[in-house]
Design goal:
CATH superfamily: Jann2411-like domain
Number of helices: 7
Bound molecules: zinc ion
CATH class: Mainly Alpha
Largest sheet: 3 strands, mixed
Radius of gyration: 19 Å
CATH architecture: Orthogonal Bundle
CATH topology: Jann2411-like fold
Order of helices and strands: EHEEHHHHEEHEEH
Length: 211
């Protein structure tokens, strides 16, 4: 049975695109869907740092609830496409996108309106030595811009991450993905406190049975 999110999102992936993939999962047994409604999607985007809280609040105020719910369903469809895409990619040694993959991602990016601004350096930020700051984001004039934001993170991920470092948690039934940024490339678990300890306990039980 799937429950609507009541826990903070699992942000263990070391990249927001994979955190997005982990917005459904069963870390504690019962499956949790963090994107079940438009409200949930906005909460997840703000909690994951992909959107500023004030941007999320603006969307909540300006967009109809039914439109946001539709976008949440489309976000789930994008997420599940991305999951299938990654599983397909894991058969290769390096990224191997086909035209459909590029078209799918660019389709979302092409519809969105972007806003870029150059700001004066923040007062007191001595490190920047008065260098102006450039910021860019989507305009969020329409709920579909939320999908563009998610697609941008997928695009950014495939353009910077190494496929070999992208993997599924070693937990037997765990669906969580992460990018392994450790020096020795030996990360195995979504979270040591969840799947790592579970595996340790299972290994301990097995040893007890044998002795
Ligand atoms: Zn896991």
């Amino acid at each position: 049975m799937t429950t609507v999110q009541t826990l903070p999102p699992m942000l263990i992936a070391d990249h927001p695109a994979l955190d997005f993939l982990n917005s459904v999962g069963a870390p504690f047994g019962e499956e949790i869907e963090w994107l079940a409604t438009g409200e949930c999607l906005l909460d997840w985007l703000a909690a994951s740092g992909l959107m500023a809280q004030d941007q999320a609040d603006k969307c909540r105020k300006n967009f109809a609830r039914t439109d946001l719910d539709t976008v949440a369903r489309q976000a789930i469809a994008l997420r599940e496409w991305f999951r299938t895409f990654l599983i397909r990619q894991s058969e290769f040694n390096e990224w191997s996108l086909d035209d459909d993959d590029f078209n799918r991602i660019n389709g979302f990016l092409g519809k969105a309106v972007h806003v870029f601004r150059l700001h004066p350096a923040s007062p007191g930020d001595d490190e920047r030595k008065n260098r102006p700051e450039l910021s860019g984001s989507f305009a969020f004039d329409s709920p579909e811009d939320l999908l563009a934001l998610l697609a941008l993170n997928i695009a950014e991920f495939v353009s910077v991450a190494r496929l070999n470092d992208t993997r599924n948690c070693a937990g037997e039934t765990c669906t969580m993905w992460f990018v392994d940024l450790t020096k020795n490339k030996k990360r195995r678990w979504c979270d040591m406190k969840i799947c790592g300890n579970r595996a340790k306990a299972a290994a301990f039980r097995e040893r007890q049975v044998k002795t």
